[in-house]
Amino acid sequence: MVSRHAGVRTLILLRHGQTEWNATDRMQGQIDTDLTELGRRQAKEAARELVSRNAIAIHSSDLRRAFDTATALAEHTGLTVVPDVRLRETNLGDWEGLTHLEVDADYPGARMAWRLDARYTPPNGESKLEVGARSLPVVQELLAERQDWPGRTIILVAHGGLIAALTAALLDLPPQNWPILGGLANTSWVQLSSHGPSIEQPGWRLDVWNAAAKVAPDVL
């Protein structure tokens, strides 16, 4: 008997483990920070959970916090991590390196405006819409290239802001609805599935959000 899921492509978007900057509410953006010891343990725990998902590929942001998280997963699956610069976190421009309180002091009201408007661009940074636009081709290329994807799983390891933007882009949400996708805990993941009739009509559905079953405050 053929499983009703045989033709479904599953996509898991995994957020990296904790960094010291996460723990201190500092805006990382594309600054290349390292996992804490807790973050490395989180990565191993996530790997043990996801190893059963029948993954055929792991692609990751090239920033260390994501790539090291992906490497922990690869060690359990025997797959090779493919780095992709398009999966980097949002470029936060002049906000990078500042704490939340420092951004709020220097740019009153700006962080809230950024959260509520996918078009809002931090000074010298990029908007959520731009993040979605640069990451969406990663998935579109995998749809075209991976003929073995139906019935199996591909995992992308990235960052909270990028995962929210990519999810919104895959679901083709109108920009005013992008803020409904909130923060992700470290090493939480999102699961989407493609049920469409063709690569041109992938029919993405959101199956799971923040799958670690924890509601975390936004950190970016």
UniProtKB/TrEMBL annotation:
UniProt EC number: 3.1.3.-
KW rRNA-binding (keyword) present: no
CDD domains: HP_PGM_like
InterPro entries: His_Pase_superF_clade-1 (IPR013078), His_PPase_superfam (IPR029033), PG/BPGM_mutase_AS (IPR001345), PGM_Phosphatase (IPR050275)
Keywords of the record: Hydrolase
Pfam family, one: His_Phos_1
PANTHER family linked to this entry: BROAD-SPECIFICITY PHOSPHATASE YOR283W-RELATED, GLUCOSYL-3-PHOSPHOGLYCERATE PHOSPHATASE
UniProt name for this protein: Histidine phosphatase family protein
Protein source organism: Nocardia implantans
